[in-house]
Write a structure and sequence with these properties.
This protein is an alpha+beta fold and about 160 residues long. It has 4 helices and 7 strands; from the N terminus they run βααβββαβαββ. The protein has a single domain, classed as 3-Layer(aba) Sandwich (Aminopeptidase). About 25% of the residues lie in helices and about 30% in strands.
Protein backbone atom coordinates (compact mmCIF):
# COMPACT_ATOMS: atom_id res chain seq x y z
CA UNK A 1 0.00 0.00 0.00
CA UNK A 2 1.32 3.43 -0.87
CA UNK A 3 0.77 6.87 0.58
CA UNK A 4 -1.43 9.51 -1.10
CA UNK A 5 0.23 12.11 -3.32
CA UNK A 6 2.02 14.79 -1.32
CA UNK A 7 2.43 12.54 1.74
CA UNK A 8 5.70 10.83 2.63
CA UNK A 9 7.35 9.08 5.55
CA UNK A 10 10.83 9.00 7.03
CA UNK A 11 12.63 7.77 10.11
CA UNK A 12 12.44 10.19 13.03
CA UNK A 13 15.44 12.21 14.23
CA UNK A 14 15.93 13.60 17.73
CA UNK A 15 15.58 17.08 16.21
CA UNK A 16 11.94 16.19 15.46
CA UNK A 17 11.06 15.81 19.15
CA UNK A 18 9.16 19.10 19.52
CA UNK A 19 7.07 18.59 16.38
CA UNK A 20 6.40 14.93 17.23
CA UNK A 21 5.16 15.95 20.67
CA UNK A 22 2.92 18.63 19.12
CA UNK A 23 1.21 16.06 16.89
CA UNK A 24 0.79 13.41 19.59
CA UNK A 25 -0.32 15.83 22.31
CA UNK A 26 -2.80 17.47 19.93
CA UNK A 27 -4.44 14.11 19.15
CA UNK A 28 -4.47 13.05 22.82
CA UNK A 29 -6.12 16.36 23.75
CA UNK A 30 -8.64 15.98 20.91
CA UNK A 31 -9.84 12.72 22.48
CA UNK A 32 -9.71 13.97 26.08
CA UNK A 33 -6.74 11.78 26.99
CA UNK A 34 -4.02 13.01 29.36
CA UNK A 35 -0.60 14.07 28.14
CA UNK A 36 2.19 12.67 30.32
CA UNK A 37 5.56 14.20 29.26
CA UNK A 38 7.33 13.04 32.44
CA UNK A 39 6.42 9.35 32.27
CA UNK A 40 4.37 7.78 29.45
CA UNK A 41 5.50 10.29 26.82
CA UNK A 42 9.10 10.76 28.00
CA UNK A 43 10.19 8.54 25.08
CA UNK A 44 9.45 11.53 22.84
CA UNK A 45 12.26 13.67 24.30
CA UNK A 46 14.77 11.82 22.11
CA UNK A 47 12.69 9.53 19.90
CA UNK A 48 15.49 8.38 17.58
CA UNK A 49 17.59 7.33 20.56
CA UNK A 50 14.73 5.73 22.49
CA UNK A 51 13.51 3.70 19.49
CA UNK A 52 17.00 2.85 18.22
CA UNK A 53 16.42 -0.92 18.60
CA UNK A 54 12.89 -0.71 17.26
CA UNK A 55 11.49 1.78 14.78
CA UNK A 56 9.95 5.25 14.84
CA UNK A 57 8.71 7.01 11.75
CA UNK A 58 6.98 10.25 10.94
CA UNK A 59 4.46 11.08 8.25
CA UNK A 60 4.99 14.41 6.48
CA UNK A 61 2.80 16.50 4.22
CA UNK A 62 3.93 18.19 0.99
CA UNK A 63 5.61 21.05 2.89
CA UNK A 64 7.52 18.69 5.21
CA UNK A 65 5.34 19.25 8.27
CA UNK A 66 5.00 16.24 10.56
CA UNK A 67 1.36 15.16 10.56
CA UNK A 68 1.63 11.63 11.94
CA UNK A 69 3.81 9.26 13.94
CA UNK A 70 4.22 5.49 14.22
CA UNK A 71 6.61 3.26 16.10
CA UNK A 72 7.65 -0.18 17.31
CA UNK A 73 9.42 -1.14 20.51
CA UNK A 74 10.32 -4.53 21.95
CA UNK A 75 7.78 -5.36 24.63
CA UNK A 76 8.98 -8.79 25.73
CA UNK A 77 11.38 -11.31 24.20
CA UNK A 78 8.89 -12.59 21.65
CA UNK A 79 6.65 -9.51 21.36
CA UNK A 80 6.98 -6.12 19.76
CA UNK A 81 4.64 -3.25 20.60
CA UNK A 82 3.06 -0.76 18.23
CA UNK A 83 3.50 2.62 19.88
CA UNK A 84 2.68 6.26 19.29
CA UNK A 85 0.56 5.71 16.17
CA UNK A 86 -1.14 9.09 15.73
CA UNK A 87 -2.41 11.12 12.80
CA UNK A 88 -3.76 14.67 12.72
CA UNK A 89 -7.51 14.86 11.98
CA UNK A 90 -7.30 16.39 8.50
CA UNK A 91 -5.12 13.47 7.31
CA UNK A 92 -7.41 10.67 8.49
CA UNK A 93 -9.56 8.65 6.10
CA UNK A 94 -7.00 8.85 3.29
CA UNK A 95 -5.35 5.44 3.75
CA UNK A 96 -2.41 6.78 5.78
CA UNK A 97 -3.36 4.80 8.90
CA UNK A 98 -3.56 1.62 6.80
CA UNK A 99 -0.14 2.42 5.35
CA UNK A 100 1.31 2.84 8.85
CA UNK A 101 -0.28 -0.39 10.10
CA UNK A 102 0.88 -2.41 7.07
CA UNK A 103 4.37 -0.95 7.41
CA UNK A 104 4.57 -1.75 11.14
CA UNK A 105 3.32 -5.31 10.68
CA UNK A 106 5.82 -5.91 7.88
CA UNK A 107 8.62 -4.38 9.96
CA UNK A 108 7.64 -6.64 12.89
CA UNK A 109 8.00 -9.68 10.64
CA UNK A 110 11.36 -8.45 9.35
CA UNK A 111 12.57 -8.01 12.93
CA UNK A 112 11.51 -11.60 13.67
CA UNK A 113 8.71 -11.05 16.17
CA UNK A 114 5.87 -13.62 16.10
CA UNK A 115 3.54 -11.44 18.16
CA UNK A 116 2.57 -7.75 17.99
CA UNK A 117 0.87 -6.03 20.92
CA UNK A 118 -0.56 -2.55 21.41
CA UNK A 119 -2.28 -0.50 24.05
CA UNK A 120 -5.03 1.96 23.26
CA UNK A 121 -7.93 3.85 24.74
CA UNK A 122 -11.54 3.04 23.91
CA UNK A 123 -12.09 6.74 23.08
CA UNK A 124 -9.95 6.21 19.97
CA UNK A 125 -12.88 4.51 18.24
CA UNK A 126 -11.48 4.73 14.70
CA UNK A 127 -8.18 3.21 15.79
CA UNK A 128 -9.92 0.42 17.72
CA UNK A 129 -12.01 -0.42 14.64
CA UNK A 130 -8.87 -0.55 12.49
CA UNK A 131 -7.03 -2.81 14.94
CA UNK A 132 -9.94 -5.22 15.04
CA UNK A 133 -10.24 -5.14 11.23
CA UNK A 134 -6.58 -6.24 11.07
CA UNK A 135 -7.37 -9.19 13.33
CA UNK A 136 -6.04 -7.89 16.65
CA UNK A 137 -7.64 -9.62 19.63
CA UNK A 138 -8.20 -8.32 23.17
CA UNK A 139 -5.38 -9.25 25.54
CA UNK A 140 -6.94 -9.87 28.94
CA UNK A 141 -3.70 -9.08 30.75
CA UNK A 142 -4.61 -5.42 30.31
CA UNK A 143 -2.58 -2.32 29.50
CA UNK A 144 0.34 -0.95 31.51
CA UNK A 145 -0.18 2.67 30.45
CA UNK A 146 -2.54 4.68 32.66
CA UNK A 147 -4.40 6.47 29.85
CA UNK A 148 -5.11 3.18 28.05
CA UNK A 149 -7.92 0.81 28.90
CA UNK A 150 -7.46 -1.78 26.12
CA UNK A 151 -4.61 -4.07 25.14
CA UNK A 152 -4.57 -6.03 21.88
CA UNK A 153 -2.36 -8.69 20.34
CA UNK A 154 -1.87 -10.21 16.91
CA UNK A 155 0.16 -13.31 16.06
CA UNK A 156 1.95 -12.79 12.75
Amino acid sequence: MSLPNGISWRIVSNQDATKVKEVIFRVLTEYGLPVDPCKTDSDLDQPATFYEKGFFGVIENDVNEIVGTFGLLEHKNDEIEIRKMYLLPQYRGKGIGKFMMNFLLQKSKELGYPKVVLETASQLKEAVMMYEKYGFKIDDSGPETERCDLMYFLKI
